[in-house]
Specification:
The chain is an alpha/beta fold. The protein is built from 9 helices and 10 strands. The strands form 2 sheets. It has a 6-stranded mixed sheet with strand order 6-7-8-3-9-10, with helices on both faces. A 4-stranded antiparallel sheet has the order 2-1-4-5, with helices on one face. Strand 7, helix 6 and strand 8 form a beta-alpha-beta unit. Helix 3 crosses helix 4 and helix 4 crosses helix 5. The radius of gyration is 18 Å and the shape is globular.
């Protein structure tokens, strides 16, 4: 398998606080990989370092064989490596279609809102909104959507940018439990049908065990365990980390 993301011995400090220490992980093209760990274990910090928001102090991050350790967020995004957030980053006063327009990988950004939305972009935006179940909401403002629908819109916006690897930070957090199975299905379809590799932070163990083929577990900023879902689920170190033992 082709290694798409290679994180090697990465350490990130904020003053005297070590958020990540010597973390190494790989994500192969076409995989869905999980990243779990108790609150404060350094998962979101690692995501931020990978995409260039908080570059690591030590170590290396490579994407598709290219060194991206010191690249900024826009440069990393142009390579096809994007992330979503625990709290949605949508434009609440703009319609869903306008949100999609801004996300198109044309380099036109905000200009897309002012009559610059091409026919191909309109088609793709409508297809992706339909893909996430928001077709009927496409002319509503983002702020009028429920929190769960806003997460789906953010997911569609990320897909609009045509990523090769998408880092999802707790995609099911705040979503009505009855809608979670539908979201899991859409993530799997994005992987299988659209060819998008996924690295997913998730606190819902049922979700991540059903979604990922491999899982990494962090605790206290360090890599605690890695393996198949069934191995992680029965790993005593992981169990102790979540229950607060040791």
């Amino acid at each position: 398998m082709t290694t798409l993301l290679q994180v090697s011995n990465c350490t990130k400090r904020f003053g005297g606080v070590v958020a990540n220490e010597g973390i190494s992980l790989t994500v192969n093209e076409g995989e869905i990989v999980g990243l779990i760990g108790p609150n404060g274990s350094g998962k979101t910090t690692l995501f931020s370092s990978i995409v260039g928001a908080h570059p690591v102090d030590e170590g290396s991050v490579q994407f598709d064989g290219a060194e991206i350790t010191r690249m900024n967020v826009p440069s990393v995004a142009r390579l096809g490596l994007l992330r979503t957030f625990q709290q949605t980053r949508i434009y609440g006063k703009m319609t869903c279609m306008q949100n999609m327009a801004i996300s198109a990988p044309t380099g036109r950004g905000l200009k897309s809102m002012f009559g610059g939305f091409t026919a191909d972009e309109v088609t793709r935006a409508e297809e992706l909104l339909d893909f996430v179940g928001l077709s009927s909401k496409r002319f509503l403002r983002g702020g009028e959507l429920s929190f769960g629908q806003q997460k789906l819109l953010e997911f569609a916006m990320a897909l609009m940018a045509r990523p090769r690897l998408l880092l999802l930070d707790e995609p099911t957090a705040g979503i009505n439990p009855t809608l979670i199975n539908g979201l899991i299905d859409r993530l799997k379809r994005a992987n299988a049908q659209l060819g998008i590799t996924l690295l997913v932070i998730e606190h819902n163990m049922r979700v991540i065990m059903n979604l990922a083929s491999r899982i990494y577990c962090l605790a206290h900023g360090r890599l605690l365990a890695e393996g198949a879902p069934e191995d992680i689920q029965s790993d005593q170190r992981v169990i102790d980390a979540y229950l607060g033992a040791g």
